[in-house]
Amino acid sequence: QVTLVESGGGLVETGGSLRLSCRVSRMVLGFKILAWHRQLPGQEREMLVRMTNEGYTFSGDSAKGRFTMSRDFAKNTFDLQMNDLTPEDTGVYYCRVLDHNNQVYWGQGTQVTVSS
């Protein structure tokens, strides 16, 4: 069983930044995919950024130019740096991993609120 715990969410003003972190109970190097998603109010969950085991990243349209993903093998964490936030970014942010058996694991989510 793999557990993921997000941290770093909270309240920030428009134009501000937040850094979310996902702590994984196993070595992050052992997963095929690391990813960040979000669910905005009244909308379906969307993928923001994903990273392959080789370190290649792919960003969804909402993340391009503002959100950056990184990983730390020593800490078994991967982060999402979010810049230039707007109220439209308010929602619940989730981390996800995909292992080599194609099993998906999700974190519990962390709330991000951007005030106008």
In short:
By secondary structure, the protein is an all-beta fold. The chain has strands spanning 4-7, 10-13, 18-24, 33-39, 46-52, 57-59, 67-72, 77-82, 91-98, 104-106, 110-115.
What would your notes on this structure say?
The protein is mainly β and 116 residues long. It has strands at residues 4-7, 10-13, 18-24, 33-39, 46-52, 57-59, 67-72, 77-82, 91-98, 104-106, 110-115. β7 and β8 (77-82) form a beta hairpin. The N and C termini lie far apart (40 Å). The mean pLDDT is 96.
Q: What percent of residues adopt helix (DSSP H or I)?
A: under 10%
Average predicted confidence as pLDDT: 96
Q: How would the global form be characterised? A: globular
Strand content: over 45%
C-alpha end-to-end distance: 40 Å
Name the features:
116 residues, mainly beta, 7-stranded mixed β-sheet, 11 strands, 53% strand, globular
Secondary structure layout:
Elements: E1 4-7, E2 10-13, E3 18-24, E4 33-39, E5 46-52, E6 57-59, E7 67-72, E8 77-82, E9 91-98, E10 104-106, E11 110-115
Parallel strand pairs: 2-11
Antiparallel strand pairs: 1-3, 3-8, 4-5, 4-9, 5-6, 7-8, 9-10, 9-11
